[in-house]
Amino acid sequence: MSESIFTGEEYIKKAEELVSSIGIPSQPRIVAEINDEIKKPGADLKKISDIIARDVAMSAKLLKIANSPFFGLKEKTDSIQRALSLLGLKNFNNIILSSSLRDALGGHGPAAEKFWNHSMSAATISSQLAGRVGFAAVEQAYIAGLFHDCGIPLLLKKYPDYVQIVDYALGVVGTDSLSGTNRSIIGIEDERYSTHHCAIGFLVAKSWYLSSVVTQAILHHHYVNIDIHTDLNTRKVSAILLVADYISSYLLFLGGSSCTVDSEEDWAKRHQKVLAELSLSVEDIKDLREDFTEKMCRGD
Ligand SMILES: [Fe+2]
Ligand SMILES: [Fe+2]
Known about the structure:
Elements: H1 4-7, H2 9-22, H3 29-39, H4 45-53, H5 56-66, H6 80-87, H7 89-105, H8 109-132, H9 138-147, H10 151-158, H11 166-170, H12 176-179, H13 185-193, H14 197-207, H15 212-219, H16 232-254, H17 264-270, H18 272-278, H19 282-298
Helix pairs in contact: 2-14, 3-4, 3-7, 4-6, 5-6, 7-9, 8-9, 8-16, 9-15, 9-16, 10-14, 14-15, 15-16, 16-18, 16-19
The structure holds fe (ii) ion (2 copies).
């Protein structure tokens, strides 16, 4: 697949037109404010608590999580600041980003449900994998996983026939049965809509002020040649995302998607650079897939 399909101005321009015709789901102001505060060195918990306290729904969500059995509090708390310190700023940031993205993108029905399951599992797997390979910016990996396919609900909104190919977009591979040829989902999207979900997702992520590490990883998440990234962090996050996307599509396949999924061996053949970047072998990918499948079955 040519590099220009991901970086060519005409693709981004077409994605911009499409996104503006649907209306880009904007990041809620309060989320942007909290994000700004969290990013500051020595982030002030009291200041962040004050911002949260202005939003009833967000306060309720935070207290509900802090008072859940997971944290084992003897007495329930109604203090935003205490709830925030229990959860930790990074966890809280992930939670508000995922719930506000979900609210912003909307969507109902089986396709939207599959999209969310896939996005949430890609986010979780990305962050856990980042920890395992010793990549410090676990947070960035989580956000890249969460947002990587966010162009899909917009394509679903704009083009009713996108529902026919949504399983293939979420499945990374397996378009043979759909097209009769071995074309990628990106090629099929390009042919039908003159753009693709990576370019649309890139624009949404940019409008949510996500870092360039994350936006670039999103734009290239169906491109196996990670050499395209000269920045080391972007290269690492991209490699993590490619593995997480593969394992997440495997989980979707087990959950009853109509797409097929490459075997670990076939996937590994095409992703040698990704494996080398993360110092992983095909066996490691198999172990990871089994490990995450077990976790999914247990509902972790
Ligand atoms: Fe994708
Ligand atoms: Fe994906």
